[in-house]
Specification:
alpha+beta; 182 residues; 6 strands; six-stranded antiparallel β-sheet; single chain; 5 helices
Length: 182
């Protein structure tokens, strides 16, 4: 009888180990998919020939990679931020954002979710996710959308956002500098 009880314990432990290994494989598959998708998105940004093309890809990545339901990209043009691209032409975003440079800089380069003005006005009044696009020296614009990021506290989500916003910001900053040089 004791031998049978011991075998049942072993079987139960083995089942737990198999379940744990399966969960670990699923998490690893998800991380690998995210990395491949992020790698493709960053390479696509570098291949773009205009800030509009970069912005369009960033908006699309906001939906496809970060899980936003809508996304638009605003870039700094003088003292204001203008809508350069959105993920879908049926989504309405105002052509310019009533956002000051100091309001964007207050984010300190970190993504955040807002239920207040001026951010909610850009997405039609609901909760807004704002991700600054950081160049080498400053934020050159921002990705804004509706939806919620999977989990802003999750390290993998934060790293994905950081890599995407940093890559996009530097590429956009280069285009903006070229435009200034004329």
């Amino acid at each position: 009888m004791a031998e049978r009880t011991q075998m049942l314990r072993y079987a139960k432990d083995l089942a737990r180990l198999y379940r744990s290994a399966k969960d670990d494989r699923q998490r690893l598959d998800k991380i690998q998919w995210r990395l491949r998708t992020l790698e493709r998105a960053c390479l696509d940004l570098v291949r773009c020939l205009s800030p509009e093309a970069v912005s369009k890809r960033v908006a699309r990545a906001g939906v496809n990679l970060l899980g936003l339901t809508t996304a638009g990209v605003y870039l700094s043009r003088g003292e204001q931020y203008l809508l350069v691209a959105r993920d879908d032409n049926t989504v309405h975003f105002p052509p310019s954002a009533q956002v000051s440079r100091s309001e964007l800089e207050a984010l300190c380069g970190e993504p955040d979710e807002f239920l207040c003005s001026p951010w909610t006005e850009l997405v039609g009044g609901g909760p807004a996710v704002v991700i600054p696009l950081l160049g080498r020296r400053r934020a050159v614009g921002f990705l804004i959308g509706e939806g919620d990021l999977e989990d802003l506290e999750d390290g993998a989500t934060r790293e994905t956002i950081s890599l995407l916003s940093g890559s996009a910001g530097v590429v956009l900053e280069n285009f903006l500098l070229e435009e200034k040089r004329g």
